[in-house]
Amino acid sequence: MSEARPLRSRAWFDNPDNIDMTALYLERYLNFGLSLDELQSGRPIIGIAQSGSDLSPCNRHHLVLAERVREGIREMGGVVLEFPVHPIQETGKRPTAGLDRNLSYLGLVEVLYGYPLDGVVLTIGCDKTTPAALMAAATVNIPAIALSVGPMLNGWHKGERTGSGTIVWKARQQLAAGEIDKADFIRLVASSAPSTGYCNTMGTATTMNSLTEALGMSLPGSAAIPAPYRDRQECAYHSGKRIVEMVHEDLKPSDILTRDAFHNAIRVNSAIGGSTNAPIHLAAIARHAGVELPLTDWQEVGHDVPLLVNLQPAGEYLGEDFYRAGGVPAVVSQLMSAGLIHEDARTVNGRTIGDNCAHAVIEDEAVIRRLEQPLRPRAGFIVLSGNLFNSAIMKTSVISDEFRARYLSDSNDPDAFEGPVVVFDGPEDYHARIDDPSLGITARTLLFMRGAGPIGYPGAAEVVNMRPPAHLITQGITALPCIGDGRQSGTSGSPSILNASPEAAAGGMLALLRTGDHVRIDIGRGTANILVPDDEIAKRRDALEASGGYRYPPSQTPWQQIQRERVGQLETGAILEGAEAFQRIAQEQGIPRDNH
Ligand SMILES: CC[C@@](C)(O)[C@@H](O)C(=O)O
Predict the structure, then answer these.
(1) Cα separation of 468 and 566, whole Å?
(2) Deepest of 149, 237, 410, 480, by most Cβ within 10 A of its Cβ?
């Protein structure tokens, strides 16, 4: 292995042209026991971007895994500098963890660029920790390998698998219908979290960790390993070893994050029944990597891909089953056999995804189906547009037979449905009124959630999946069409139409919708329209503008305010607009100026 270019860390620790500063940079890194020999011998300095903490239970196991990462780095001659990244715990952060992805991104960019790091191990896991890390690695463009923390073990309750998140939405219905009491509710939900790790369902975390592997940014076969398994420790060790080699090879995110790699990830997302948050995060990563990835690619490239993975919420099983059945490589190899994978895309191990997955086999066909026997023949997202919004997505793999029979069975137009709407302004409004009989909600009602987008909430909350009122649940109606400008948990089986852009708070048409209006959704044509005459809409818009526009709660923290001023819409990744102008910083900007 030859060194492709001088290590950037030498500009800090071994710069004969600027001994004044070299001394200052060295002395403080010696103070905890590192030696001159280590810092000046041309060894790569490798960061471990530590996302685990007590505030981040999903990623907390990285505190343990980091020991094995260190051993791998050391063994290959690297020097380790571990540092904390801003915590993002999806189920802990209020008002929403969606607010923190861009903050974590900004922080990590500053660290990766401003400190003496030649490469980095990105410790990923909970939903937004993954895109935040990949966005930053793409922006700075130093060698980077992602290490997933892995999902929790399977949850069980009375002999049945209880999956993270998915069981919460089900149990909320049971509680509302009076089938369980509050203590049962908590017991049932807690049963889904039996160990360290992130959601054991195909929620956003397993999705994003799987897509990271599909993008080529983590070792093949690594995404699905449950957090407590010994294999996870081994993977940590191999990731540590490999990042040192990557630095010597100068293998950077820009060599891996190509348009082909993103298209591979989109197809894998369809096959695994991945989260509706994936288009947002992939768009964000792509924009920071300088790759064109319009939302329409999700339908064009991903819709006709079959559902192969039988994991909740689209299926039955959980994370341990996915790993035992072969994980991402088994899925990729199936897709390869239909020509659905760009096999030449490079990955962090230096080989192509085609080479990595060519011989992967399915170990359990109940969990990962063969291409010839999919759970559904077409499982990707559809992208809708119309006078209600420029774009919104719908995850077709969670449209149940019951939902299809009720809404998509009109013999004249089997892909369309229309009905009166009930509009909620934020989740508080929904929780307060969903069971209010005066709303007159029936099985034909469409539920709308607005004020939940990147500006309105701020950060975009996971609140579009709304349960029907209790009186409908007791009649067996467990899902009404839900539409909104917010997000929804990847663990939700609700066939919602979500991520609507522009949101009400950004002047979107949703702000003009009123309870009682009729809306028509045509899934076949990909349209969503409010059936209200144009002159009435114009009147409403004038009135809204005269009243100062759509109202949402004021910012409570400086970051909420800053993010609101800069953030884009979900359709284009909800990144800080303008930040994407800074690309490949390590190459384009060189080494930052000295600090003294
Ligand atoms: C329960 C909430 C999560 C963590 O499941 C959700 O954020 C997701 O998967 O999208």
Answers:
(1) 35
(2) 149
Angle between helices 101-114 and 558-566 (to 10 degrees): 90
**C-alpha–C-alpha distance, residues 362 and 331, integer Å:** 8
In sequence order, the 6+-apart residues with CB closer than 8 A to the CB of 31 are none
Copy the structure tokens of residue 83.
């540092």
Kindly give the distance from the C-alpha atom of residue 381 to the centroid of ligand 1, in angstroms, as a whole number: 18
Averaged pLDDT, 315-327: 98
**DSSP code, position 522:** E
Predicted pLDDT of residue 397: 87
Using CA atoms, how far apart are residues 454 and 503, in angstroms rounded to an integer?
Answer: 8
Output the average pLDDT for the chain: 96
With a threshold of 0.90, does the pTM exceed it?
Answer: yes
Q: Quick one: pLDDT at residue 56?
A: 98
Ligand 1 lining (C-beta closer than 6 Å): 90-91, 127, 164-165, 199, 203-205, 275, 277, 462, 489-491
Note the pLDDT of residue 505. Answer: 98
Residue 3 confidence (pLDDT) above 70:
no
Q: What are the pLDDT digits (tens) for 543-588?
A: 999 999 999 999 999 999 999 999 999 999 999 999 999 999 999 9
DSSP code at position 572:
G
Q: List pLDDT tens digits, range 511-520.
A: 999 999 999 9
Cα–Cα dist 278/256, whole Å: 18
Closest among 513, 298, 482 to 387, alpha carbons compared: 513
pLDDT in tens, 401-446: 888 888 888 778 888 999 999 999 999 999 999 999 999 999 999 9
pLDDT score for 1: 41
Angle between the N-to-C axes of helices 204-215 and 278-289, in degrees from 0 to 180, rounded to the nearest 10: 40
Determine the pLDDT at residue 4: 52
Residue 402 backbone zone (phi > 0: left; psi -120 to 50: alpha; other: beta): alpha
pLDDT (0 to 100) of residue 403: 87
Write phi, then psi, for 170 (nearest 5 degrees).
-70, -45
The residues facing 484 across adjacent strands are 449
Whether residue 384 contacts residue 526, with contact meaning beta carbons closer than 8 Å, is answered with yes
| Mutation to probe ligand 1, out of 91, 209, 210, 272 (largest number of atoms < 8 A from CB) | 91
Residue 468: name the closest of 453, 446, 497, 492 by CA: 446
CB 449 within 8 A of CB 158: no
SS (H, E, C) 495-507: CCEEEEECCHHHC
Q: How far is CA 219 from CA 40, 72, 91, 202, 280, in A?
A: 30, 14, 27, 20, 23
Model pLDDT for residues 181-199, shown as the tens digit of each residue: 999 999 999 999 999 999 9
User: Ligand 1, residues 94, 127, 192, 318: which to mutate, most atoms within 8 A of Cβ?
Assistant: 127
Distance separating alpha carbons of residues 291 and 65, to the nearest angstrom: 32
Give, for ligand 1, the residue of 168, 462, 488 to mutate: max count of ligand atoms closer than 8 Å to Cβ: 462
Block residue for tokens 């069975």: 409
Sign of CA dihedral 336, 341, 342, 348: negative
